[in-house]
Every structure is written in structure tokens, then in C-alpha cells.
Design goal:
The chain is an alpha/beta fold and about 425 residues long. The protein is built from eleven helices and nine strands. It has a nine-stranded mixed beta sheet, sandwiched between helices. Strand 4, helix 8 and strand 5 form a beta-alpha-beta unit. Helix 1 runs antiparallel to helix 11. The longest helix has about 35 residues. It is elongated and about 100 Å long. The two termini are about 40 Å apart. The relative contact order is 0.17.
């Protein structure tokens, strides 16, 4: 047999010197650290990184790695357990426009029937149903729908017309419901929509416009008896416009109506100042408008909270703001990656709608909770997948350790070969 080439014959080890000795020692130390870190993989889970803003939502929305074979169910169970660990309490949120309108109708009729804890007369309520299609904040992606607004209006008006109120002999009588639009054209458009859709307007419901003379004509002379209940006025989406401050017209209509009448504002967009384009106001008029708007109590409120994804500028739902009944508290619920709405903040019942700073702070805290839960879920799923294969799971840490180990061995081998063959530089 021919002898092996000299460069394939194992050479005896040669003691390294100078910088070569330092490089070999460093390589050996790196290999030892890699082995020690590998042994610590079975220890406690490291603290997850804190992500904020869109990065947190991307981390929370990214699915955990899929397990193979029979470990899939175990990985899914581990991910669900990890995601639910430390999560805020779940909130029952209506999942459709029909469900939102059903809740709003029940809350409104209950507030009218009970009088909000008062005498039951002279109520001033507001209902905000700001679903996509009714929310001006996301109008560019979800255009405002007149058909949807007319449908919600008719359901609320029919519920008010069918709900008796009063006491004694008047308990069985239902009031007339006057649906007031911002203009006569709006009332005519709604009537045409109902006629084209073959939707009958319930008896006791009248379509009209928000004008003092229209409201004054509905006032019946007081004969001293309580047999006739006072009317109910449902004002549809009153909105201040430049040169047309509807809040001023609303104040005149309220003054012209019966003092026992019930007023309900549906999706109002009013302001006591001129900041909404209604024109400048003096101090006295601004105070009057502020007092008028403060006299309306929220019977129901629902609004989707959206975040704008850049650079596509697409609105994506992050949660909701919900207030279910008159006197109830404000609830901020974030939409978690598991499809469950969870409470992340609240505000007192007597306070106003939560401002954008409070909403932003609550949802930023929710993002951190989502990121931590998603991190734990991915690690649990990866660990379950590795155990299902009978070996160590292939995750980021294992890949890192493998690369470091290979580099350490390669460096030590190169140094040893150069030194053994005399190819190392003179030191």
C-alpha cells in the first residue's frame, strides 16, 4: 500500500507561544462558555424583551412556531396557557353592529323607563354607536353609511315608541317619538330610504327636522291631566359645521319643547366652542352651550379604537371603549392576539369620555402585556416541539450556541494546524 501523504499524517501537538497561545486560550474559553450556556438551557425562562408601539403588536400578532407530529396539541395548550398567564380579565364585547344596536336599544329604553333615578320626565340622554361606517375618525377607510345610520335610527325610534313610561293611568301609554334630522333634506332622504327599502315606519314615529317651529308645533296644550305622556325627541347625528352651529339650534329647540319631554342625541358631534368649525363664540354663549351639552347623560357608548399602520396608513382595530348603561363606568378593552377583548383601563361613571391620552396610555400598557404573553407562548411552543422530537428544540438560542461552538472549534483547529506546520507568523 502506498504510504499516506505527509500532510494527512497526524502530527504531535506543539505547545503554542506568544499571541498564538492567547488566541488558543480565548478559543478554549469561548468553547467552555458555550458548553456551560448549553447546560443552563433547562434553567428558568429569561426575562422577555420589552417592546413598545407597533413592534409590540407585531410580536403579539406573530404566531408561535408550529409543533410537529403528536406534539402539536401539547404546544397549542402550552401556548394558550402561557398567553393567558397574567392577562387582564375578559370583557364581553358585542361582535357585530346588530349586537351593538341591541345593547344600545336595551340601555336606552331602560334609562327612559327608570328615568335615570329621577322622576322619569325631562330626561336628556345621548347614545353613541360609533362602529365602522358610523365613525368619522376612520371615514377614509370605512366611509360613512347613511343606510346604516337610518337603520340604527329606526330601531331606536321603534323601541322608544313601544316602551311605555309614566305612572298610574299613563303607564300603558306610549309617547310619540319625533325623529329630528339636521335639515329638511335629511328627513326627506331618510323617508325615501325607508320607502325604497320597503321598511315601514312604526306608528307613533314621525320624521321631521331640527327646527324650533317643528318642535313647537308638537307641543300639546297642557290640560292639567297626565293621560298624555310627553313626546320623545330623537336627534340624529347633530354636527356642527362652519357657519352652522347646530348646538345653538338644539338649545332653541329644547327651550321650545315641553319641559317634560325626553331628548336623545344619537352620535352627536357638538362642541361648546368654535374649535369644531362652527365659528367663534363669546364667553356667555360658550358657557350656555357648555351647560346645555353637560345636561345630557350618556346612556350607551361604543367606539372601536383603531391604530394606523404605517407606511400603508391602514386602520386596524386595537380595542373598544364601552359604556353599557346610564351610570355605568367607562371600560377600555384591548383586542388580544387570542381574539379575546380584555379590560386594560376604566374611568369613573360620572366622568366624561376618556380622552386620547388616557386611551393611549392604557393601550400602550396592553401592548407590553401582549408582547410578554406572546414571548412566553412562543418559548412554550418551541420547548414542546423540541420534546416531541425527542431532542433539543431548535430555537434562536440553540442556533446561536451551535454557531459559536463551530467557530470556536474551527479557530482552535486553524491555530493548531498553523503552529504544527510552521505556517504561523513569527511572534
Amino acid at each position: 500500500m502506498a504510504p499516506s501523504p505527509a500532510f494527512l499524517t497526524p502530527l504531535p501537538p506543539v505547545a503554542p507561544r506568544g499571541r498564538v497561545a492567547g488566541a488558543a486560550a480565548a478559543a478554549a474559553a469561548a468553547a467552555a462558555a458555550a458548553v456551560a450556556r448549553t447546560r443552563r438551557l433547562s434553567g428558568p425562562t429569561p426575562t422577555p424583551p420589552v417592546r413598545r408601539g407597533r413592534a409590540a403588536f407585531r410580536a403579539a400578532a406573530s404566531p408561535p412556531p408550529k409543533a410537529a407530529g403528536s406534539a402539536a396539541s401539547a404546544a397549542a395548550a402550552a401556548a394558550a396557557t402561557a398567553a393567558a398567564d397574567g392577562a387582564p380579565p375578559a370583557v364581553d364585547v358585542p361582535m357585530s353592529v346588530d349586537a351593538v344596536v341591541t345593547e344600545a336599544t336595551a340601555a336606552l329604553t331602560d334609562a327612559v323607563a327608570t328615568g335615570g333615578g329621577g322622576g322619569g320626565d325631562g330626561l336628556r340622554l345621548r347614545v353613541d354607536v360609533l362602529c365602522p361606517g358610523l365613525a368619522p375618525a376612520v371615514e377614509e377607510q370605512f366611509p360613512l353609511s347613511d343606510a346604516l345610520l337610518y337603520g340604527v335610527t329606526l330601531r331606536l325610534a321603534a323601541a322608544l315608541a313601544a316602551a311605555p313610561r309614566g305612572s298610574g293611568d299613563a303607564a300603558a301609554a306610549a309617547p310619540d317619538v319625533h325623529v329630528l334630522f339636521s335639515s329638511a333634506g335629511g328627513a326627506a332622504s331618510a323617508a325615501k330610504h325607508y320607502a325604497d327599502a320597503s321598511t315601514p315606519v312604526p306608528s307613533g314615529v314621525k320624521l321631521s327636522s331640527l327646527l324650533p317651529r317643528e318642535v313647537g308645533s308638537a307641543v300639546s296644550p297642557d290640560d292639567g291631566s297626565a293621560a298624555t305622556p310627553p313626546p320623545v325627541y330623537l336627534v340624529v347625528a347633530p354636527t356642527n359645521a362652519r357657519g352652522d352651529p347646530v348646538v345653538r339650534t338644539l338649545g332653541r329647540c329644547v327651550a321650545a319643547a315641553d319641559s317634560r319631554s325626553t331628548w336623545v342625541l344619537l352620535n352627536p358631534r357638538l362642541s361648546s366652542s368654535g374649535g369644531d368649525g362652527a365659528g367663534g363664540t363669546g364667553l356667555a354663549e360658550a358657557a350656555t352651550r357648555r351647560a346645555l351639552l353637560a345636561s345630557f347623560s350618556t346612556a350607551y357608548y361604543f367606539r372601536n379604537v383603531f391604530v394606523i399602520e404605517r407606511p400603508r396608513l391602514v386602520a386596524r382595530e386595537a380595542g373598544v371603549i364601552l359604556k353599557r348603561r346610564l351610570g355605568g363606568r367607562w371600560v377600555l378593552a384591548a383586542l388580544f392576539p387570542d381574539g379575546v377583548y380584555r379590560e386594560v383601563g376604566e374611568a369613573p361613571a360620572a366622568g366624561p369620555e376618556p380622552d386620547r391620552h388616557m386611551v393611549a396610555g392604557a393601550f400602550e400598557a396592553a401592548e407590553e402585556v401582549m408582547a410578554a404573553a406572546a414571548y412566553r407562548a412562543r418559548r412554550a411552543a418551541a420547548a414542546a416541539a423540541g420534546k416531541g422530537r425527542g431532542g433539543v428544540g431548535v430555537d434562536g438560542d440553540n442556533v446561536y450556541l451551535a454557531v459559536i461552538g463551530l467557530l470556536s472549534v474551527a479557530t482552535a483547529g486553524v491555530v493548531w494546524v498553523l503552529q504544527a506546520t510552521g505556517g504561523a507568523p513569527a511572534l
